[in-house]
Amino acid sequence: MTPQWKFPSSANASPAIVECRRGRPGALAGAGGTTAILKLVWFAGVCVVVGLILWTGAAGVFRAVAAAGWGVAAVVALRGVALTGAGFGWFFLFPPRSRPAALVCVAIRFLRDGANALLPITQVGGEAIGARALSLLGAPASLAAASVIVDVLVQATTQFLFALVGLATLASLRSVDAIRGAAAIIVAVAVPALGGFYLVQRPVGRRLIEGLLKSVAGGRKWRLFGAIDALYARLGSIYANRSGLAAAFCVHSSVWLFGALEVWVILVFMGYPCGYPEALVIESLMHTVRGAAFAIPSALGVQEGALIAVCAIFGVPAEAAVAMSLIKRVPDFVFGLPSLVAWQVLEGRALQRVAAGTEGGLGR
User: What's the predicted TM-score (pTM) here?
Assistant: First the structure.
């Protein structure tokens, strides 16, 4: 299916709306969090990873990585399947009349993940870049933003349920007193956060945001762009697509469960045979910690520390846990680098179109 984007004629649209619709090339790249503070945090994270490698024993870590052998290629393949599935989960959220091609959603889903993994931005900065890329391909900016917002909520909700499944599985495998406390903390933090994120997207959230903007900048300025109205109209159309929401929920839930195979493959190839339940516990709790540390670029150091702690429950040594984390970062480079290059090509073409339009305007 090809995209069916419908734009108002530039001749009938106000200059402000046209500019908002087209977007300014590179705008989201600059707003994605590449500030001095995030760069510092990113560098500190790299130092923590290096420190953990040295602390657990660099020789042991690299021996464990080498022992994984073809397991590394298997992890790359598994991640490719998982990201493809996540792309289809995003695809289903779009209302049928304004749905882009499935391959477009899949390709940009790879970009979103690659940006979050490789750039010195927060772990949600890639979502803004993904929305930007979709708008550059012709989607209305309001639809691109709304679809990503809802997709993030669906992913976060299914991840929360995945964490609960992991804790329940751990409780069935080990008698750990801290499990109840951990579950209570996750529920106490996640439920209000997810509920608040959802309410912000609903009419009550719209009224609060509009009231805040009116008090800060005056309603007339914001109404000129129509950004709020357009965004909430798109959100409403997405939430009205109940079958699409259900499909996206099922797909993302399956992707989380599928992702545990990465841990299983790595441990088996490194010589630490385990079952799928143990792998599920490790994967779910690792992502829970990563989610809590969303402000840290690529969860550098956080992912490694989480794996050391969780793997210890099943007798996996620290050097193997760090090696697992390094292996799980390999797909970030395999898929992320080409995606980022493609994004830059897309931005470059947008700049060329803007430059050509400017020159044409001066010529007239």
Answer: 0.82
